[in-house]
Amino acid sequence: MSEDIILATDDLTKEFAGFVAVNGVTLRVKRGSIHALIGPNGAGKTTCFNLLTKFLQPTRGKITFNGNDITGLAPADIAQLGLVRSFQISAVFPHLTLRENVRVALQRKRGGSFDFWRSKNVLSEFDDRAMSLLEGVGLKQYSHLTAVELPYGRKRALELATTIALDPEMLLLDEPTAGMGHEDIDRVAALIKSVSANRTVLMVEHNLNVVATLSDTITVLTRGRVLAEGDYKTVSNHPEVKEAYMGVGHA
Ligand SMILES: Nc1ncnc2c1ncn2[C@@H]1O[C@H](COP(=O)(O)OP(=O)(O)O)[C@@H](O)[C@H]1O
Ligand SMILES: [Mg+2]
Fold first, then answer.
1. Residue 200 in contact with ligand 1 by CB distance below 6 A
2. Cα–Cα distance for residue pair 73/88, rounded to 1 Å
3. Residue 28 sits in which domain range?
4. Predicted local confidence at residue 22, as pLDDT
5. Is residue 206 situated within a structural domain?
6. Which stretch is the leader sequence (predicted)?
């Protein structure tokens, strides 16, 4: 087999008191791709994410990241390996400014002692990088505001900036454009595209325009199972997908 798979699941299953939220899901995420997980509400997308980042322990099944079995690892271990979920970074501090928030994430990525951070050169280097990340998510003009002052959509954008600051090998994004207006959606979609250049992205996304524009591969879940998989054209022409998903609800 020649394909380079960064993340794989086999028979991933999660039951809640007898209710099967995720049912025998087998995923293959190609390194360097943008892979979307879509499906109607209650399909099991968020539960899948929680399993992948180890916030939930699977009832059965296996998760492999970069060829290593990570099924038994803790969330912090997973992040350490380079698999980071956007909300997982509790690095959004409500009373720090946006610039400080991104700078903290950059410093976390870099590691090192506190003395090191007092160096003026290092701080201004981080400031420049922080501003460019904020610009990328459309928050440059708000850099001096505290995170708590932001409306919801812009908080998500900040979350994305701090996640990218951590420079993970693979990013998991749960509805990155949720709560955003059109302009912000376009900007965040462009940003996801640009950060995917040298990493892998797996995202849950409701906005099908974003999915169609960004995704190399789409997996459609319904009732915890994989219903269809492929590129946007393949998936959107799938009769059962049309019936179960495209036809109802989401525009
Ligand atoms: N902790 C839980 N306990 C019981 N049922 C849950 C729990 N989390 C999710 N579920 C159920 O599992 C199903 C899938 O939920 P979820 O993964 O959030 O779906 P999605 O993100 O696709 O909307 C839903 O029916 C939901 O009610
Ligand atoms: Mg969800």
1. no
2. 15
3. 1-79+172-178+199-251
4. 98
5. yes
6. none
Q: How many domains does the chain have?
A: 1
Name the amino acid, one letter, at 97: T
Give phi and psi for 99, each to the nearest 5: -60, -40
CA-closest residue to ligand 1 atom 11: 21
Which residue is closest in CA terms to ligand 1's atom 5? Answer: 16
Q: Which residue's CA is the nearest one to ligand 1's atom 4?
A: 16
Asked whether residue 219 is assigned to any structural domain, the reply reads: yes
Q: Report the chain (251 residues): mean pLDDT per 10 consecutive residues.
A: 87 96 98 95 94 93 97 89 74 88 84 58 82 90 94 83 89 86 84 87 93 96 95 92 65 41
Which ligand is nearest to the Cα of residue 41, counting in written order?
Answer: 1
| Amino acid type, 232 | Y
CA angle 15, 17, 18 (to 5 degrees): 65
- Ligand number nearest to the C-alpha of 40: 1
- At residue 112, the pLDDT reads 53
Write out the two tokens for 72. Answer: 């038994």
CATH code, domain carrying 64: 3.40.50.300
14 within a domain of the structure (yes/no): yes
The response to whether residue 94 sits with its C-beta less than 6 Å from ligand 1 reads: no
Site of tokens 């049309």: 242
User: Reduced to 3 states, what is the DSSP secondary structure of residue 221?
Assistant: strand
pLDDT at position 251: 41
The pTM for the full model equals: 0.86
Ligand 1 atom with the smallest distance to the CA of 43 is: 22
Q: Is residue 93 part of a domain?
A: no
Cβ of 39 less than 6 Å from ligand 1 = yes
Residue nearest to atom 3 of ligand 1 (CA): 16
